[in-house]
Structures are given as structure tokens and as C-alpha cells.
Design a protein that fits this description.
single chain; about 280 residues; 11-stranded antiparallel sheet; alpha+beta; 4-stranded parallel sheet
């Protein structure tokens, strides 16, 4: 087999040793059309950067969660590198651990397509993510989202947004809007507790404008998926959503900047092959 091992910057190659043990293969550090399987050692952003090749070349891959944000792996049921290693050993035993999941897409003007594996979002989260990405790796991995949230709240004004979901039109003052393939983002926030990664739909968790003091209760409850009880929270499922706004809004995917509104968010059913629990 031809195996590609992709590392997050700063991750030593010694982390690969347990995965190489007992595996007869040709190893490389780059994806190609001849790659039979890939290991991605890092966080959500590392996976995000290779989605185009993984999709187009139909390469099964395993996310080894050692990044500052590992929500994609968590949504797949991969809790830590030890769990990833067990899946890898099983893959080489019988390849029974490969499954197909949906792949999110964001179509931007003029005619650009970006992919996301876990979430795409806009609203205050875009500013929070921008601020969090400026922090050191240590702080990003240890409360970076919450540390960045409070300064972002000071100047945020919820914009008026027009959403067209599967032909139905809504107008909302949006505090947060997260189109989710996986259940979690923001390093553990269970933002879309009903999401399934292989159901041919994306879940939208939308939070309308709300009093700033109420934010203090919203985010702790989101870690347990209990925020859906808050009256300003709405929850939808869709296959295609067009987003328009009077002022341009930054759209992020998997913690990485993608483009600005207007955009169309949709998905490719079975667009990714992952090594993950069934």
C-alpha cells in the first residue's frame, strides 16, 4: 500500500512510530492519486487543507486528533490518538473501519468552491475564530474560544441576514449561524447535537440576537447540547442554503477563513471516505 502521513506544523515524526509498527507499506508525506490511505496528524485545520484532494481522489483517511481543535475527530467518535491507533490497526486487518460521510461545500463569488468536513459558520463566531487564531497554540488549545469571545462581544452588532433554505426564505438578525456536518465545534461545543455525518443533510443552529448577559448561559449549556432550550435558538436541517446580507460577512469553515457573503452552502453526499467507528 501507498500511505501518506500528513503532519500539523510542529508535530514530530516520532508521533508516527506507533502507526508504522507492523505495517508493510510505502510511506510519503504527500497525497497523490496513487495514495491508498492517509494519516492526518493534527487538528481540524490540518484536515481542512487537504479536503479537495481527499475528495477528488477518494482516499480513505484517519484523523489522529493532536491539534488545538479536534472537533471533527470528536464528531466521528475518535476521542484521542489511542483510539485512532486502534482504528488504524483494524483498518490494516480487515479494512472494515472505512465509512463514507458527507462533505460540506461553500460556493462563493465569482465561482469558487470551498470544502468543509465539520462546520461552516458566520456571525460573531467569525470574529471569535479570527481572534483565537492569533493566540499561541497553548491558549488556542486551552480555552482559546472563550478567551476570544468576550472581547468580540464588546462591539458586535447582529446583522440582518436573508436565508433561503431549500426554497424557503427567512430573514433573521443573526448572532451565530453554524451549518454543521458534525456535532461539535469551538473545541467541544455540542452546537448541533442532532447532526449525523452521513444523512445527506446539514444541520443549521441559528441563534438570533440576544441580550449579552444571556450569552453567559448560552455557551456553557452548548457544551452539553442543552442550548436548544434557549428561546433565541432555532434549529433546521437543509440540503442547500443561500446566505445574503446587506454588509458582507466573513464565512469560516473548520476554523479557517473561506470567503464572504453572499454564499451558497450545500453538501456532497458520501463525499469523504474516513477511517472511523461505524
Amino acid at each position: 500500500m501507498n500511505i501518506a502521513a500528513i503532519f500539523k506544523p510542529g508535530v514530530p515524526e516520532s508521533r508516527l512510530a506507533p502507526f508504522r509498527q507492523g505495517v508493510e507499506a510505502n510511506w510519503s508525506n504527500e497525497l497523490s492519486q496513487s495514495t491508498d490511505a492517509a494519516l492526518i496528524l493534527g487538528g481540524d485545520g490540518t484536515v481542512h487543507r487537504y479536503l479537495k484532494q481527499l475528495h477528488e481522489w477518494e482516499i480513505p483517511f484517519l484523523h489522529v486528533p493532536i491539534g488545538s481543535g479536534n472537533d471533527f475527530a470528536s464528531s466521528l467518535g475518535i476521542k484521542n490518538p489511542t483510539a485512532a491507533l486502534r482504528l488504524w490497526k483494524r483498518f490494516f486487518k480487515d479494512q472494515a473501519s472505512v465509512r463514507s460521510i458527507d462533505l460540506g461545500t461553500v460556493h462563493c463569488l465569482p465561482d469558487t468552491v470551498h470544502y468543509f468536513c465539520n462546520v461552516a459558520y458566520f456571525g460573531i463566531d467569525s470574529d471569535v475564530t479570527r481572534r483565537a487564531n492569533l493566540l499561541s497554540p497553548f491558549w488556542r488549545a486551552n480555552g482559546g474560544y472563550i478567551l476570544s469571545l468576550f472581547p468580540a462581544l464588546l462591539n458586535y452588532r447582529a446583522p440582518r441576514v436573508t436565508l433561503t433554505m431549500d426554497g424557503e426564505v427567512f430573514e433573521k438578525d443573526v448572532f451565530i449561524a453554524v451549518a454543521a456536518n458534525g456535532t461539535r465545534y469551538g473545541r467541544g461545543l455540542k452546537i448541533a447535537p442532532r447532526a449525523e455525518m452521513d444523512d445527506g443533510q446539514l444541520d443549521l443552529c441559528l441563534v438570533r440576537d440576544l441580550p449579552r448577559l444571556k450569552v453567559a448561559t448560552l455557551f456553557p449549556s452548548a457544551y452539553f447540547g442543552q442550548h436548544l432550550r434557549v428561546k433565541e435558538v432555532e434549529y433546521f436541517r437543509f440540503r442547500k442554503m443561500c446566505v445574503q446580507s446587506e454588509a458582507t460577512l466573513d464565512v469560516y469553515g473548520d476554523g479557517e477563513p473561506m470567503c464572504q457573503t453572499p454564499v451558497e452552502i450545500s453538501l456532497i453526499p458520501d463525499g469523504l471516505r474516513v477511517i472511523a467507528p461505524a
